[in-house]
């Protein structure tokens, strides 16, 4: 079970500019503390003919589309052909992958969005990693702090992994689909190619190639 929670089981690291940040890590939440400084390191290597440096530690690809009403705080990298739409709020420590979409009124904070990720409508994504081509439906959010403010534990069946993190939202593997108005509770990990029904409240681990219908009802896709 623990292997399914590992980076190697969840992501194709060729689909993110942040691949080097995952070196030395086993589980994906270990990268969260490395995002801020990692952006500054990566940004310094980006070619000036492909990226503009805007403000303090903000790099935006020349091919990206950023609405004039969007707010981007550094450090941040907006990748090639990405789209940041009207009134998006990037609070800082965010990597938006190539071809990704950050939609209207969506808020990002301390995140890595792999290439082609879509968070297009009224989403909050904090202290999280979203894999290649993952998609969060309208109004779906990550909850990144427990109500009792204690460190987040990742639970998968009888397995419990202490993260030591007080702020940790969700990990979405490649090709994950999250239905509209769902809440991903702190420490949620969703395996590759899994689907989450709309209006779900998800906690713990959802295996790859499965469909989360309700708590206690998870079925295989094939």
TrEMBL record:
<keyword id="KW-0808">Transferase</keyword>
<feature type="domain" description="Mannose-1-phosphate guanyltransferase C-terminal">
    <location>
        <begin position="72"/>
        <end position="189"/>
    </location>
</feature>
<dbReference type="InterPro" id="IPR056729">
    <property type="entry name" value="GMPPB_C"/>
</dbReference>
<dbReference type="GO" id="GO:0016746">
    <property type="term" value="F:acyltransferase activity"/>
</dbReference>
<dbReference type="Pfam" id="PF25087">
    <property type="entry name" value="GMPPB_C"/>
</dbReference>
<dbReference type="InterPro" id="IPR011004">
    <property type="entry name" value="Trimer_LpxA-like_sf"/>
</dbReference>
<dbReference type="InterPro" id="IPR050065">
    <property type="entry name" value="GlmU-like"/>
</dbReference>
<dbReference type="GO" id="GO:0016779">
    <property type="term" value="F:nucleotidyltransferase activity"/>
</dbReference>
<keyword id="KW-0012">Acyltransferase</keyword>
<protein>
    <submittedName>
        <fullName>UDP-N-acetylglucosamine pyrophosphorylase</fullName>
    </submittedName>
</protein>
């Amino acid at each position: 079970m623990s292997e399914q929670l590992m980076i190697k089981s969840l992501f194709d690291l060729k689909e993110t500019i942040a691949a080097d940040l995952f070196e030395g890590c086993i589980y994906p939440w270990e990268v969260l503390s490395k995002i801020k400084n990692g952006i500054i390191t990566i940004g310094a290597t980006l070619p000036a003919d492909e990226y503009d440096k805007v403000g303090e530690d903000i790099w935006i690809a020349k091919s990206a589309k950023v609405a004039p009403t969007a707010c981007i705080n550094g450090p941040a990298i907006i990748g090639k052909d990405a789209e940041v739409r009207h009134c998006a709020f990037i609070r800082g420590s965010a990597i938006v992958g190539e071809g990704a979409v950050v939609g209207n009124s969506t808020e990002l904070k301390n995140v890595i969005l792999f290439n082609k990720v879509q968070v297009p409508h009224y989403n909050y994504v904090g202290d999280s990693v979203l894999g290649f081509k993952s998609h969060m439906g309208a109004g779906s959010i990550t909850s990144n702090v427990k109500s009792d403010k204690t460190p987040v534990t990742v639970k998968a069946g009888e397995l419990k992994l202490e993260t030591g993190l007080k702020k940790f939202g969700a990990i979405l593997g490649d090709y994950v689909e999250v239905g509209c108005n769902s809440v991903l509770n702190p420490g949620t990990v969703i395996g590759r190619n899994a689907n989450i029904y709309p209006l779900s409240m998800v906690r713990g681990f959802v295996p790859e190639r499965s469909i989360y219908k309700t708590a206690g009802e998870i079925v295989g896709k094939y």
